[in-house]
Each structure stands twice: as structure tokens, then as C-alpha cells.
């Protein structure tokens, strides 16, 4: 027999959830719970964005309660928005497989999904960092899936370590002594490169960037995270051409995010400290293959030395606004992965330099039209 007070409580809870779901927001509150259109905290961690025909799509790791959420028990979640503040749950865009022998078997590690649209094939292409189920972080593979619609369903194609058998390219004028020589690797990082040359380079934290000319690049932590590779993707974006450059070798950079402004390539990344936050780092280059210049930590103010508690994942150009880029970071909560928060902050330009300052609350008016 359901008692009257139970009905009342249920009705109040339901009303609260509906109200939360229907409450439109018009500002960002970094680190706060961020309800989607159903009133549920957005579940798209280590995410990336796609803008198409007036709609933004947000793809990220779907986490579950507790520590198991650090593994892929569901897949890649997708949300859509017209204003970047209010997000509609579009469901699971790529599901992990119930087949334990599948590369993306339930319980694998599937991180940092990024989706780009290929204008030639009219396909949506998702790349992600894949670790095989039960093997910790040993596999260090890149995985790729495609879809006919932005919100999926995406179909897994394959996973592998990129650029097996290929040597890196170098900026013009690079001295022979500064190039990788696998007969005599100069340091630990080159040693890892040469070890992995036959079977393909390790590929962990990553991003994908499509340049103005439609060429796409996969940027990923390689060589036990000691180096970032910036690798050209083929014309349909589902494979690597073998052309790549090694960036900031020997410094263990993760969570790379690339954007372009006034003809300059920018990259923001992090150090390598597990789920714990560390100082962000930023770079610039005149060519996607470098040379890349390291500039230090772009964050300023309290907790800048730990990137305000977050770790980079994406930098989004805001449509219709000039010089408008949003730095997107994850505030990980590995003990209860599903509670992970999102730190979105505006990138401030000082000439060609950038700065990221903390704001408790802000909106897109901070960017000029
Ligand atoms: C930091 C990476 O950026 C995350 O994607 C994840 O792999 C954790 N390390 C695991 O410790």
C-alpha cells in the first residue's frame, strides 16, 4: 500500500527533476553539476566538440558510478546544443561490445573520443585512445569508428598503433644529429620510438584537428607519453598516411588540444600525473609539423599551477564571435568517475600570447562579436 507521504515525495522529486530539466541556463559555471535536458549531469568526459549547421555536438566518455567508471562500460555519449549552455542528450553514439574478444569489448579503456566530419565522404569519423580489456594501458592504440549521422550510431572499424615503419619528418634545416637515429637513440624517448617503429607508435591521449585546407591530423601522446606525434590522416580520415612529426620530445605531455588563430597553430596540453591535475602547458607553431615553441603554463591566478584542478581536453572556436575560443578541461573524480566536472573557461589573447583565467560564472558576452 503506497502511503500518501510516499506519493507526495515522489511527486516533489519528479517535479524537481522536470523543473531542472526545463530550466534553461545562459551562463557557464565551471566545476558545477551541469544538467542536460533530462536534468541529469552531463556524462561526456575527456570530450571533444563538432560544430555543424548551427548545432554543436559534444562527444565524451560515458562513465558509471564508482571506480569502474574509469573503464568503458557503456561507450561514447553524445549531446547536442544550439547555444553551448543547454545540452540535449542524444544517447550513446558508440557502444562498447558485449563480445569479450572485440577490441572495444565492454570493460576496455576508451578515452578522449574526438569526432570530425569528412566533406568528401560525408562521414562522421571518431578517433579515440583505446586500451584493450584487461591489459591496463599496455596496448596504447588509436581506435576509429564512422557514422552517417553526427549523433551516430558509430560503427567501430579498427584499432592499431599508427605509422608502423615510418620515420618522422623534420622542419627544414634540421641538423642530421638532431634527427632520430635508431642505430644510436640519443635518449629514452628516441629509444621508445625505435622500439615501437616496427609495430607502430604508441597512441594514448589524443585529439584530432582539421585544418583550413581540409587536411586532418591526429595528435597523440607517444613513446610512453614522452613525445607528442602530430600525424596526417588520409583523405577519408580513417587511417594515417605515415607523415608525422615528433613534438616536445622527452617531456611527457598528455591531453593535447590544438586550435588555430590568425594563421598560428596553438596547442594546450598537460603533464603526465595520472588522474591528478598538474600545470597546463601551451605551444605555438607556424606550421602544423612545427617547429613548436613551448611557452609554459597559460593559466593565471589561484590554482593555476594545477590548471584550476582540471586537465585539458579541447579548445573550441565559438561560431559567430571574433577571437573567441573556449578552453575545455575535465576535473576528474576517479573514485566516482561519473561525478567528473567540466571546467570551461575563455581563452584570453594578449597579442599572439594566450592566458586562461578562472571565472566562477561567465557567458559568451565576454567575447566581442
Ligand atoms: C591522464 C589521461 O589524460 C587520462 O585520459 C587517463 O588516461 C588518465 N591519465 C589515467 O590515469
UniProtKB/TrEMBL annotation:
The keyword Signal applies. InterPro entries: Glyco_hydro_43, Glyco_hydro_beta-prop_sf. The keyword GTP-binding does not apply. SUPFAM superfamilies: Arabinanase/levansucrase/invertase. Residues 1-21 form the signal peptide. Keywords: Glycosidase, Hydrolase, Signal. GO terms for molecular function: hydrolase activity, hydrolyzing O-glycosyl compounds. It comes from the Bacteria. GO terms for biological process: carbohydrate metabolic process. PANTHER family: GLYCOSYL HYDROLASE 43 FAMILY MEMBER, GLYCOSYL HYDROLASE FAMILY PROTEIN 43. Belongs to the glycosyl hydrolase 43 family. This is Family 43 glycosylhydrolase.
